[in-house]
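Section 3.1: Structural characterization of target chains.
Under the original work plan, the team committed to producing a structural model for every single-chain target entering the pipeline before any wet-lab resources were allocated. The record below documents one such target. The sequence was received from the expression subgroup and is listed exactly as submitted; it comprises 469 residues.
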Amino acid sequence: MRRLRGTWGAVRLRAWFLLLFIPGLIASAGSAEPTPAPDPGPPPPVVKLHLEGGIFAGTADYLIENIHKAERAGSPVLIELDTPGGALDATRDIVKVFLGADVPILVWVGPAGARAGSAGVFITMASHVAAMAPGTNIGAAHPVGLGVGAPGGDDRDDANRQSKNDQEVMAQKVENDTLAFIESIAKLRHRNVEWALSAVRDSVSITSDTAVELNVVDMLARTPEAFLDAVDGRTVETASGEQVLRTRGAAIQEVGMSLRQKTLAFLGNPNLVYVLFVIGMLGIYMEMSHPGAIVPAVVGGVAIILALTGLSVLPYNASGLIFLILAGVCFVAEAYVTSFGLLSVAGAASLVLGAILLFDGPENLGEFSALEVSVSPSVYITVAVLSLAFVLPIAYLVARSHLRKPVSGREGLRGEEGKALEEISADRGRVFLHGEYWEARSAEPIPAGRAVIVDDIHGLVLKVKPKPE
C-alpha cells in the first residue's frame, strides 16, 4: 500500500510539472522568429560581348577568350548578335564553347533590324537563353556552295561528269553533317528541332515574333537590359550543373576586341586581302625593276604578310593563290624580258582569274553564310586596270632602254664616226673620236683626214674602216 502511494505521488508530480512547463514551451515556440536566409549579396556583373558582321577566326577568338575569362570570374555572358553568317570551323568552335560553358550564355539578337543569319542560327540556338528584339529575323542556315547541278545529258566528258558527281556527293555529306549538327544543338537546348532542320534544309527564315511562338528563342526583349531583367530567377543547366540567374540590376561589363582580334577581323575582308596581295607584288616589281629603292620592297613585303594573315582566317582556294603568284612572276619578268607589254597583259589576266578563283571552289563547301566570301568584280577589274596602268609605262621604259644603242664602253664605240689624223694601216695610225685621240688599225690603208667608222675595239686600240663616200 505504501508502494502504491509513492508511485501515485510520483505520477502527480510529473503531471504538475507538465502542466506548469508545457504552456511556456508552446508560447516560446510560437513567439520564436524564423532564421533569416543569408544575404546573397549583389548579383555578379554580366560580361557583354558584341558579335557583329561575319563570323571568322578573329570573331571566334574574341568570343572564346572572353567566355573563358567570364568562367574564371563566375560571371554570366551576354552576347549582342547581328550577323549574316560566317565560316563553318569558326562557328563550330564557338558552339563547342557555348555547350561546355560553366556560366550561363545569353544571346540577344538586336537591335531592331539585326539578324541571326546562317551561322548565327547555330550560335543563337546553342545559348542557354535566347531573345530577339522586335523587328529582327533568324534563319536561312543552308550551307552555301552546295548548289552543284547534275551533269547534263549532253555532257560527254567522263572526267568532268565524275568531278560533278564527286561534288554532289561532297555537298550531300556536308548538308547531312550540318543537319545533324543543328539537330543536336536544338535537342540539347530543348528548342524546336523541326524548325532547326528546315532552316538548314530549306533555308527557312522567320521573324522574331514567330521565333518565340515556335520555341526557336525564349522571348522578345527590346533592349539587353530588359532581357536581363526578364531572365532573372530562371534556372539553366550549365556544364557544371544547374544555376539560377541573378541578372536583375546586374552591372554590365562591355568587353571589346583586342588589337590582335581587331586586326584578324579587319583582315578577314576578301577584297582587302586581294588588294594587299596585289600591292605586295607591285612593290616587289618596283624593287626588281629599280634595285636599291628599298621602300617599295618594304611596303610590298608588309602587304604580302598582311594578305597571308588574312588568308589564314578565310576559306581560300589554292588555285586562285597560284594565279596571283603567277601574276607577280609575269610583272617581275617584264623588268628583264623585252616582251613589249605581253607579260604585263598576262599578269593582269592572272590577277582577274586569281580573284575569281581565290575564294570560290570545292574547298568552300560547308560554309553556311549569307555573307559572300569572294572578291567583288568591281574590285578585281579596277585592280587589274590600275596594275596595267602602273606596269606598262615601266615596261615601255625598260624595253626602250634595251633597244637603245649603248653610249659607253665597247658597245658604245661600235659604229661611231671619227677622223683619221694620219695614215692608218694594219700596223699604225691615230684617229680623233669623241674629243679623244685613239690608236687605230685598219685592214686596208686609210689616208689622213678621211672619215672612219669604228668596227671593233681591242683594249685601247680601235679597229676601223673607211666611211663609205
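The mean pLDDT is 81.
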